[in-house]
Amino acid sequence: xxxxxxIVLTTMLAVYVILDGYDFGAGIIHLFFAKTEKDKKAITxxxxxxxxxxxxxxxxxxxxxxxAFPTLYASSFSGFYLPLIMILWLLIFRAxxxxxxxxxxxxxWETIWDKAFGIASLLLALFFGVALGNIVRGVNxxxxxxxxxxxxxxxxxxxxxxxxxxxxxxxxxxxxxxTLFLGVVGVVSLTIHGANWIIFKTNSDLxxxxxxxxxxxxLVLLALVITSLLIWHIIEPKPFSNFTQHPWLWIFPLITLTxxxxxxxxxxxxxxxxxxxxxxxxxxxxxxxxIASIFPKVLPSTNTVNPDxxxxxxxxxxxxxxxxxxxxxIAIVLVIIYFTIQYRVFKGKMDDVGYGEH
Amino acid sequence: xxxxDRMQFAFTITFHYLFPQLTMGLSLVIVxxxxxxxxxxxxxxxxxxxxxxxxxxxxxxxGVVTGIPMEFxxxxxWAKFSELTGGIIGQTLAMEGxxxxxxxxxxxxxxxFGEKLLGQKLHFATGFLVFLGSWAxxxxxxxxxxxxxxxxxxxxxxxxxxxxxxxxxxxxxIWLWPSYLHNQAASLVTASFVVAAIGAFYLLNNKHNEFGKxxxxxxxxxxxxxxxxxxxPTGDWAAKNVVKHQPITFAAxxxxxxxxxxxxxxxxxxxxxxxxxxxxNKIAVPNVLSFLTxxxxxxxxxxxxxxxxxDYPTNVPGLxxxxxxxxxxxxIFIGLMLFAxxxxxxxxxxxxxxxxxxxxxxxxxxxxxxxxGWYTAELGRQPWLVYNLLRTSExxxxxxxxxxxxxxxxxxxxxxxxxxxLFLMLVGKIIxxxxxxxxx
Lengths: 358, 440
Fold this sequence. Notes:
The structure holds two protein chains of two kinds.
Chain A: H1 2-32, H2 37-47, H3 51-68, H4 70-79, H5 81-100, H6 107-137, E1 144-145, E2 148-149, H7 177-201, H8 207-235, H9 241-245, H10 251-262, H11 274-294, E3 297-299, E4 309-310, H12 311-314, H13 318-345
Helix pairs in contact in A: 1-2, 1-3, 1-6, 1-7, 1-11, 3-4, 5-6, 6-7, 7-8, 7-11, 10-11
Chain B: H1 2-17, H2 20-40, H3 43-77, H4 79-113, H5 115-118, H6 120-149, E1 154-156, E2 162-164, H7 169-172, H8 176-204, H9 209-245, H10 247-254, E3 266-273, E4 278-285, H11 288-294, H12 316-345, H13 353-361, H14 364-381, E5 384-386, E6 390-391, H15 402-438
Antiparallel strand pairs in B: 1-2, 3-4, 5-6
Helix pairs in contact in B: 1-3, 1-15, 2-3, 2-6, 2-8, 3-4, 3-15, 4-6, 6-8, 8-9, 8-13, 8-14, 9-10, 9-12, 10-12, 12-14
């Protein structure tokens, strides 16, 4: 039962990253590349009717985490207290930036909310990358000082950073050079992803330029991926042990590489949706490979005193997990129906949807 | 340590609930307008529906952005509570995400941007699904709330964890339906008063008169029905649950310090004096409380004197005031709506300017009454998180220091102040423009 909910949770998170990821990416494109009012309109039209439903995947995944793995939810949410609350604030700024911009026709008003939307999107992409880095690196469970736990074995608290920015000291911080590196990977890959979505959903004048941006950023991303494989060994001496034990898991890194290399052909794609497909593959593969590499751990311990959190020691009891399968099966079918309807009605190009016009 | 955690939850939930309490009720009003339009094909009803939808959309967006912090805070600030009870309350909270948030958010987009693409019948259907989603959300939240007030279907393991043993019991909880119906009726009170107040505002300013009359009439009819249902039977049911299962809470709510053998009086006004354990400056009507509670004039009601002081609700005066404000305002709402309905029936309403003024100025009070109602429920449960089983002091996050919590509390305060100002500005703009201008 734990494995079932683990797969559900991972899948929902991956869907969230793919869906809200294009919103963040579109926000970053909006911040750096959209110069004219027409470009900006095109971008907000492309994500306007969707961002809200996309964000629900985060809330729903949070709910599933709470219900299926309450100890992990309690431990990680209190331990990552500050960055999580800041993510909430950023999500609020992103939302009001998008929703309020069109409410008043005034240059200054529009500039303020454009920047709020763009900067919040950029920081969210960075923070989600940093979050993944924290999970891979692990935390000081039990807040061990000099070999003695100062908290219960599954609780911890991380400040935003420690003075050395090192991922290998006893007193860790949220932001160190390793997690920050993954944050940069997050920003670059989501920028590519957002650009692909805009190309897919609009006929904007930006599209030709965005194809070039995608190609160039993809080169950067390739370099980052190679670097990350090298530095991964510093954090975890045997990052591929799960893959050598279960060779079928190689499918996830393979998906990542398909996405990554497929995108180099972005300038010759005939169909506008192909780029989006490949960047989705990259994100899905990247996230699942990372999570598969630490399985069954969900939050590794960086000390030798307290054990890792695994799916088995953080899960709810058997009865609750089993009964949840019934309602979840119904719910997920409904969700798929809603999304099919929604994306059918708003299929094709979105230039004329009139989002944000009041 | 606990103080800032409680302040932050109280502040963020109070602010959050200002928005869903309108959207749940308003979604029903929108479905009604849209339905009237489908039946009559009179364009006015469609414009009214779309105008309400603009207000709905703004409130919905506010509800979403202030709602996500609620789900996060169980883990960030109440980690121990989440760890111990997550296997149970996680069920209903996860169901809320899966069943209602997806429904609401998917179809809200379609309702707002899809009228031309969908045609009128399907457009009505999307509106109805938004209504369904928002009411399902309320249902699952109140199911969670009811389990905390009156835990059922569980057992406690040796390590202190609550585990679920009966899923169905979460939904047959005797606390659930009275609270849910009471709350939904109260949400409809807010929506009705807002619609009526906008109507009165238009008529008093002599603009958008046609819509002014429509909004006023609709608001008053919905308002009369809902404010009656809030009091009877739903409020009565909810109170009887409290008498039976939380007698100490009931005593504090009603300000009953001493058990009276000849029957208890109902307190209308008075200030709890916790030092001398009595009410100061009391105005009360003899024996009425006994009658309302047990339908017997001399029925005995347990006073606070019969309980151990460590089990008293943490804030007895706060609980007493919250309850009395709720009940007092609820009574005023019924009175005003009854009178307005009579005037409407006699076709004199649109000319009786003082009633229009009263309806318009009544706008903030349903919000206050709803908030006071929730304070009654929540302060009434204290000092417990799970009634009689888990104390609030045992539920907070063990590793989050009060300095960090104060930091985020200050952040939320500033951010929500900004949100509140923006909201008022924008909602004012929509109302001022009116339904004719807003549709294009």
